[in-house]
Amino acid sequence: MLSPARFTIFDDVVAFSTPPADTFDYLTDPRNRPAWQSSLRRIDDVHVIGDRAGDVGTNWTDVTIVPGVSPRLEVTACEPHRLWREVGGWRSVDAVLSLRFDERADFGTDVRAEATLTVPVIGVPVLAVNRWPATQAIRADLARAARIVADHGGR
User: Between 151 and 69, where is the model more confident?
Assistant: First the structure.
């Protein structure tokens, strides 16, 4: 039996003009995701664990624009204003998104996002072809989130 393959599909820093607290609170609340994540239609079945949406254990289902693809996600790390991580799975694919928040001298925030996928070996050719478009989509989604937070304070 072949082992699954793990790929980093995105590892970059996106600048937000807003302070770490505002940036963190907006990005880590899964209920905000459909406003800035282009691959989502909506989220369903949100179960908030802890004091706020986005705390460790919070989980939900992404309903994507791809018919039938609805991964279940769960927050696995939450250090307010510093680090946040989610793990998601759909069929034989697992995804991890990690966000690190660093305050800049101008009181804005650099968000370092790393997204990895673990896929069966048979899916490697498909992932190789779609890696660049996925990278561009993630970068555009985070830039959209930065505009939303700056324009509306995340509301």
Answer: 151
